[in-house]
Amino acid sequence: MYAKLKEHLSKELNSIKEQKLYKYERVIESSQGAEIIVKGKKVLNFCANNYLGLSSHPELIEAAHNAINKRGYGLSSVRFICGTQDIHKELEQKVSKFLAMDDTILFSSCFDANAAVFEPLLDSQDAIITDALNHASIIDGIRLCKAQRWIYRHADMSDELGMDEATGKEYKGLERCLKEAQNCRFRMIATDGVFSMDGDIAKLKEIVALAEKYDAIVMVDDSHASGFMGKMGRGTHEFHGVMDKIDIITTTFGKALGGASGGCISAHQEIVDWMRNKARPYLFSNTIAPSVAGATIKVIDLLSSTTELRDRLEANTIRFRKEMTAAGFDIISGEHPIVPIMFGKYPDCSKLAVDFANMMLEEGIYVIAFSFPVVARGKDRIRVQISAAHSDEHISTAIAAFTKVGKALGMI
Ligand SMILES: Cc1ncc(COP(=O)(O)O)c(C=O)c1O
Fold first, then answer.
1. 129 near 187, Cβ under 8 Å?
2. Which CATH architecture is the domain 58-305 placed in?
């Protein structure tokens, strides 16, 4: 019975292999960190979401062990049947305080939080207005919801309606979408706090102002910001000085906040209460493991007691961006530890980016090339991600390797 599907899949798999789009996994033979073992060799990792260097932090490992010892390995239940422990409630309270939101509801991942958040709140009388470059999980969450959709051109706050010459497609700015959605019952603007390919930060001040003008609520996915953006590391709402103006924050514990797994929705009390009753990935999926809850509590305690790690990350990011720019690389400017090194201005840029990443591994630096369809054609890049775990020496070694390979390939 499987023969026809097998033939189809084999053909498709060969096709993406020929287009160099097949995703191979490089295997790490150590724990996650600034220094990892790949193929028996120590290399420096410059492409993890391990922004604060907490993925293998001894205090988190101890907290995870403690949680296993005291609360077991798993709960074998969804939250509302018999899957809620005191540590789940404690984590929800601590995350709410850290993000300065009323309440928080945990999910197995932020992908699940985004799959959960739209459908219970909005239906066909309502509007979701979403940035064109939002993360796949926001896009999928919106697909699960019956609300009418408006997609605004990435980061375009304007009242414009225009034609994109490159794609031949119509585009709209956010204000235009809000105007068009005025007859809907409720309007929700949904945006990533930080866009993961370019590392650019959503214009939350302008978004909040437009939300006030056009009576909309604002949802932000702060997966690439929670724990380190803003002076106290609270996220993009702190960074932009709009901490009391965001209605819903979704975020992950799988990046800066420990790196294992888990996510949440933090929001107004009524929204969280409604999610506990209606959100399908909450009602029909297992609770997060005690080890993850226990270790994430430790993360929030750690980050609430000192800004040392986010300060270190900020200093590392400023240095790397400055020295790579001085070395002659084309990097997308900004402040975020996602630092995209762009290849579009060079001939055969997709191959060049892949060759570059392979040569960097030879130099002991682990980075990855991103090409179409992950990014637009001609926007090929190596996306470097800086960590607080990087020492000054790690950063010097990486910049020296980039410079050596860049010169060898005639880029700088
Ligand atoms: C912006 C954004 N949202 C959500 C997610 C999903 O997070 P999780 O790994 O917790 O499912 C990611 C992860 O890639 C992300 O980058």
1. yes
2. 3-Layer(aba) Sandwich (3.40)
Q: How many CB atoms lie within 10 A of CB 274?
A: 15
Q: What percent of the chain has pLDDT over 70?
A: 100
CATH class of 21-50+307-408: alpha beta
Query: How many helices and strands in the chain, by DSSP H and E?
Result: 15, 15
pLDDT at site 193 = 98
Is residue 255 annotated as a catalytic residue, yes or no? yes
What global pTM score does this model have?
0.97
96-131: pLDDT as tens digits: 999 999 999 999 999 999 999 999 999 999 999 999
Q: Say how many Å lie between the CA of residue 396 and the centre of ligand 1.
A: 30
Q: Which residues contact 17 (CB under 8 A, 6 or more apart)?
A: none
Is residue 203 part of the annotated active site? The answer reads no
Confidence of residue 328 (pLDDT cuts 50, 70, 90): very high
**Mean pLDDT for the stretch of residues 294-300:** 98
Candidates 252, 257, 264, 374: which one to mutate for ligand 1, based on the most atoms within 8 Å of Cβ? 252
Compute the Cα dihedral for 338, 341, 342, 343 and give only its sign: negative
Closest CA to 285 of 145, 119, 141, 108: 108
Quote the percentage of the chain above a pLDDT of 90.
Answer: 93
Q: How far is CA 19 from the centre of its chain?
A: 27
Q: Is pLDDT of 341 > 80?
A: yes
What is the domain partition of the chain in residue ranges? 21-50+307-408, 58-305
Token pair, residue 51, equals 């922004």
Using the CB atoms, write b or e for 278-306: b if 16+ within 10 Å: ebebbeebebbbbbbbbbbbbbbebbeee
